[in-house]
């Protein structure tokens, strides 16, 4: 399915294209920010928070926006809301943390903390300067400090757990238990690196190496990343894992970041393997800035998309490729700024 500024279009297996309806977002129009279906907007100074198309909560206090002030982060789960707000004379390193239950007024519970996410048992994980991870209960009371000097972390919305790096270790906190999953030196990784949840797995990406582990820390695959032509070439998509643990990702070759032509390659790292191999390669006229690529599984098929307007379905088993790019270019309202493609239901 492809989305342009004019609407949503479905591609049939026989090559036909069907108009599905107007372009839509998974959240209400006019929101100030959204991520993982959580969103907020400011309405006459009040913070309005929701998930998906549903409004969950409206602040009782007013938070007028001005230069140097604003909402830092919002997280919503079950009947709980947390957000941070910075206002002069405080700076962004010392926002005020607020918590609330649905239907209740917000309470200021701390200064200098930003909410990260709610765990499945209703604990709130926050991050504060300088690098302190903390856990609070549903009412905002401090329960414990997880770690200090932490600057690499990610909240996994599918498992409602926090993953973070500290002292050369990957650790996981699910609201009840803190576990050491992996020591980086044991798999040839060092900081800085990126933590990326990928369904039932976690991808750890360093400068030269990618390691895939299960949520219990067991290593299932690893690979050296492709040797790239230019300093600006890089792994250009997040890693995508299927149910088995096969992982796909993309990397560019010849992207100067100033407008150039080159290639983008889809790589496959099978479960249990120690080397990723190229699956598909696409000639690209690279956008100058803010370009990105994605890969998504659907059974044995991968959908590779690039923000320049390219979309290709690739069968990981047979390597058969179906390039939809030329058809997408002719769709009404096609503009790379609004272009999006994904698997239909």
How do the strands and helices of this protein lay out in sequence?
Blueprint lengths: L1 E3 L2 E5 L5 E5 L11 E3 L2 E6 L2 E6 L2 E5 L11 E8 L2 E7 L9 E6 L5 E5 L1 E6 L5 E5 L3 E5 L5 E6 L5 E4 L4 E6 L2 E5 L4 E6 L10 E5 L2 E5 L3 E6 L4 E6 L15 E2 L5 E7 L6 E10 L7 E10 L6 E6 L2 E6 L3 E6 L5 E3 L1 H5 L10 E2 L4
Antiparallel strand pairs: 1-2, 1-32, 2-3, 4-5, 5-6, 6-7, 8-9, 9-10, 10-11, 12-13, 13-14, 14-15, 16-17, 17-18, 18-19, 20-21, 21-22, 22-23, 24-25, 25-26, 26-27, 28-29, 29-30, 30-31
Task: Note down, in words, how this protein is organized.
This protein has a domain at 31-151. Helix content is 1%, strand content 51%. It has one helix at 325-329; strands at 2-4, 7-11, 17-21, 33-35, 38-43, 46-51, 54-58, 70-77, 80-86, 96-101, 107-111, 113-118, 124-128, 132-136, 142-147, 153-156, 161-166, 169-173, 178-183, 194-198, 201-205, 209-214, 219-224, 240-241, 247-253, 260-269, 277-286, 293-298, 301-306, 310-315, 321-323, 340-341. A four-stranded antiparallel beta sheet has the order 3-2-1-32, with no helix packed on it. The chain has a four-stranded antiparallel beta sheet with strand order 4-5-6-7, with no helix packed on it.
Question: How are the strands of the largest sheet arranged?
Answer: 3-2-1-32
Task: Measure the end-to-end span.
Answer: 9 Å
| Main sheet summary | 4 strands, antiparallel
Note the overall shape: globular
How many runs of DSSP E, i.e. beta strands? 32
Give unreliable regions as ranges.
Answer: none
Count of DSSP H/I helices? 1
Radius of gyration: 22 Å
Percentage of residues assigned to helices = under 10%
How confident is the prediction overall: mean pLDDT?
A: 88
Q: Structural class, from helix and strand content?
A: mainly beta
